[in-house]
Amino acid sequence: MPDPELFTRGPLRLARSLWSTGDVRAEPAQLRRLRMYAAAGDPPADAVVQLLEELPAGRGRELFEQALTGGIDSVSDAPEPLVAFFTDVEAPPYWVDPDRLERGARAITRTGLLGMFPLADMSLMGGYLASRAAKTLVSTGDLEHMAPKRLIETATWWLDVTTPGAMRHGEKGYCSALRVRLVHAHVRAAMNRRDDWDYESWDLPVNQVQTVGTLLLFSQVFVLGTQMLGIRYARRERDDILHLWRYIGWLMGVDEGLLPAGEDDAWRMLWLLASTEFIPDEDSRRLANALLRSHSGIGERFGPLSGLVSTASTGLHAAISRMLLGDANADFLDLPNQRLAKTAVLGLAAANFATETVRSFVPGATMAQEKLGAFARGAYARQLGRLVPLDPTYASHMRSNSSNAAKTRRK
User: Which site from 26, 125, 335, 383 is most exposed, i.e. has the minimal number of CB atoms within 10 Å?
Assistant: First the structure.
């Protein structure tokens, strides 16, 4: 098949030539197979959400949390949907390698706060190009009207699941992954109750294709983004990062037939998603503008310099987005195109690359960078917690999504 637009020009074309191996293009039959997953949800999680709706208010969530932290055997007379869900997730697949999970998390950790820029400016902004997935985001209302809060929640969740040791059974990242899986199932149920959901145009809400797309944005696109900003990885590090996200994706209910087993798989999946999913529309632009406004808000605390700081902030974030998305997509999303900001980002990338080159040759430097990155990430997480009261169970999102769906039906 011919290359999709994202791969025919701009940054991704260059990135593929630098970091991919072989021909990543798909055959028509492979694309048709992928599209079959656009009608697939997550039956085990969907059954748990239905159970929660049938039980007395709060009781189902209490049972879920008990099984999540104490194991399903700690729940006496557990309902069958809960037993089926946790019996599955408590028995990890044969391919899960705990050592690789730890190495992947350490490789992410050593990027420190620099890793947060690709998360917001490439992963999230790139996700808005997927117009069908954007329909759910716009329908919930949260990402457009509460963009700063949701950006902080996404960053906090990402820090949870990428911290070394956090994906062990019962640990913070493990619990966060399964809680968000439940949120996805709840959103899917809420959207399915809407009278205006267009299945023919938008597919099943929060379907398997969209979920694996999110996984690729947080894994492969993160790796690409940090490399564009000057971070250097050994091949084993890149594969270990993707192994970590393969397990996170499995916990979050992504079908094993879609989970990339390594970097070559991830490139092929990214190519398929670019062919069928990353097609922006007006909702993509609305979400991008909401995210830009959240970046602009940083200037509010600087008094007379607020306008200058806001302009600089949006310009820098937009310049990082353009590094991956290319000018054509960035222009469609109405991202600023400031020459000074682009020059500053390129200078930062060059400086990072020089520093990373030195690190790769100095004994002990990688371990020191991991410790420094862990310290910076921990301090950043604490700062985020002070900015916005966070609900680690995400129960509030389930209530708000149900409320939004009900309002839409009344209209």
Answer: 383
| Residue in 129, 110, 115, 107 with CA at minimum distance from that of residue 322 | 129
The token pair that represents 169 in the structure block: 């059974």
Q: pTM score, two decimals?
A: 0.93
- Measured in residues, the chain has a length of 411
Asked if residue 39 lies in contact with residue 288, where contact means CB atoms within 8 angstroms, the answer is no
Q: What is the DSSP letter of 262?
A: S
* Separation CA 21–CA 17 (nearest Å): 8
pLDDT in tens, 349-373: 999 999 999 999 999 999 999 999 9
Please give the structure tokens belonging to residue 211: 């979920």
**Tokens 């979920």 found at:** 211
Helix axes 208-218, 235-251, angle to 10 degrees: 150
Indicate the domain borders of the chain. 5-37+92-397
What is d(CA 82, CA 74) in angstroms, rounded to the nearest whole number?
12
Contact 188, 128 (CB under 8 A): no
Q: How far is Cα 59 from Cα 406, in angstroms, rounded to an integer?
A: 22
Q: Each residue of 140-177: pLDDT tens digit?
A: 765 556 677 788 888 999 999 999 999 999 999 999 99
C-beta separation of 315 from 338 below 8 A? yes
Chain centroid to Cα 227, Å, comes to 17
Give Cα separations from 284 to 33, 227, 291 (angstroms).
Answer: 26, 25, 11
Report how far apart the first and last C-alpha atoms of the chain are (Å, whole number): 44
Residue 164 and residue 106 in contact, taking contact as beta carbons nearer than 8 Å: yes
